[in-house]
Amino acid sequence: MKYFHINNIKFNYDLEFKNNFDNSFWKQNTPLIEYCETLGINIPHYCYHKNLSISGNCRMCLVELKNSPKPIVSCAMNAKSCLANGDVYTNSSLVKKARENVLEFLLLNHPLDCPICDQGGECDLQDQSLFFGLTRKRFYSFKRVVLNKNIGPIVKTVMTRCIHCTRCVRFAAEIAGVEDIGMFGRGLDSEIGTYVEKLFQSELSGNVIDLCPVGALTSKPYPFVHRSWELKNVASIDFSDGFGTPTQLFIKNNHLIRILPGYDKIAHKTNWISDKTRFSFDGMFSPEKIVHSFLENNEKESLVNLSWKNLFKEFFCTLYFQNHLLKHLYQPYPIIMCINENTDLKVLNLLNILTCKYSFFKLRQTESQNINTDLEQNYLLSLNDKISMSDTCLLIGLNPRYEGYSLNLRLRSRFLKGNFKVIQIGSLINLTFSTINISSNTRILRSLVEGNNLFCQEFINSSNPILISNAEIFKRKDYFGLASMLNFLIKAIDLFSQSNTQSRLDILHPSLNGVGFANFNSLKVIKDKDLRSAPGIYFLHNSFATSNIKKLLNLKLLKIFRKKNFFSSTFTKNKSILITQSSNFDTKLVTQLKKGFNFSNHLHLPNTVFFETSGNYMNTEGNVNKTIKIIKPLGQTKDDWQIVRKIFSYSKKMVFMNNFLKNEKLSFNSDTFRHFTNYIGFQYYAVSNLNNSAFSFLKKSTIHCSNTSTFKLKQEKLFNSQFRFWLNDFYVEGTNFNSKYSSTMIQCSRLSRLNNTNFDF
Description:
By secondary structure, the protein is α/β, with parallel strands linked by helices. The chain contains 23 helices and 29 strands. Strands 16-15-27-26-25-17-18-24 form an 8-stranded mixed sheet, with helices on one face. A 5-stranded parallel sheet has the order 21-20-19-22-23. It has a 3-stranded antiparallel sheet with strand order 4-3-5, covered by helices on one side. The longest helix has 19 residues, at about 310-325.
């Protein structure tokens, strides 16, 4: 039996490597430094990183190997081969002396500006200098000075502090796929930069701030703001896309200071995050944020900073007046409540209870969502290990680089391993790796299904092909024909490909709670009839800023809708009400909305933002993420579920004539497979209070697969049009409405448009 020693500790070689239950992990040239970390032995290093390639140029991770003439670099040596040939010592006198000499050379040209460095307190160079640094200096020559580089509004550079670990260079080339940063010069003149003056144009550029072990690359938007020991760390999720990537929030004096990547307990690693996740939170706390309520009526009077009691009194008095007035017309005119995909699960359930209790409240979604929600497999992105087992991927109307950067990183990682083709149907975009764009027209799907396209041979020779689409393409008018075409394509791939498993269409939802919203219920889309005939419109979460509302407003201003408004009567002319519940809104858009659809009264209810409330969200993979309240809200702002609960309490004091259904006991019908029990998790028993404990949510939705129906489908027309590239600007557009109020995102957007267009603006 063979043994080896690490720091005079005896290990069984056969037990550690040959008979290990996870032996496949050690076959992939695992570095010695990583193996020592699994044993609890920490080796100091600068250039080594688990998610990057091996560089081995800092020489700080030297260890002593028995029978070796000199210390070896632990990050560049294979653990299995080293331990098979001798014993390893990580804290011997030779190793300590070697590390002291290496650190002395690293500090040779490093400036003594630790008190004013943003990296102070969490700098690896400071920590290692405490253990291996010398108390006296032996070099008194002039220190080298390197000019700072301007690489964008995200990263601040102080290149004199750089120790040439090349982490940023390897990240730009291997992870971001934008090889704009490199090392040029030789010897004493070598430095990190872009060689020519240009910006580091990547949606992941902020990650080099975390990678830099010294203070050479720091955060430009927030310099000289904090020290690490002053901040409180709280776990949260990414609010900018549909994956809900774990993040770390750092708080100081009830202010959010910064956001860093968090540890993913499912994947057991720390993920990368985008610049939008990292820096767009200042849009939520911008000076334009509305923290007080106000009421505007047709007499041009404006009442600001009303109490919540007066707000609900005004709201329900208006509803009571309209309700008793409309009973003479023998027609129920409902109050329309518009919600979008960012509404969390608790608020969705409360609104559903409200509409069940009072029939004149009607829920509407601002944009059409025509995805078939009968089965979970129809609207989830459940890739798991399918990417590693596949050799072909088809992207349909999808831009994963900006709509779901986590998916794009997984696709790029699989592409770099080789034997992986990515075929794209949509706009010509750069995904940071090679793709084959065959067309952007829907006619290409018909040719693929009919077998008249040359790329059909790729699917025949492929194993376990992946088909990924975007939820945005199902907002088209020909969604049914497009979905039928995709189903036929999947059947053809299963029939002729070399796959052992059944293929399916994975759908990426770009919004935070897109899957939870799709799973909730099939809500109708708001139309011009609702805006013209309803006595009141209730918009939650900036739902009036969507493209569908803007389209209806433009058509109204162009006088396309010529039907006479119901509120032209003398009784109801001055009693139509517009209610907005958000943290900020576009004043110009709201003014046009009031003018176009004759809303005489405007009531605004200030609500909290993402970090000021607790919520439950279901990401695009079916996982339920729970967030907590970390910042105390300012002004009169309240949580959405608290406002809806107040509506319940005040509604008990009124007697509404148009409420044809008196639902004191509410019951739910399962419209889909395990509709509430599997996903929303609403408890099936009577509750006395509507609070946080009244809802329970599962950690992950259960995927139920079923064969499709054998009945013949009806014929639907498929428009010969382009797939819409709905996201024009990554930084200020998208499902997160607060990013356009962020000063950092506005700067990034301006520079991105200057570099990607031919116009100077």
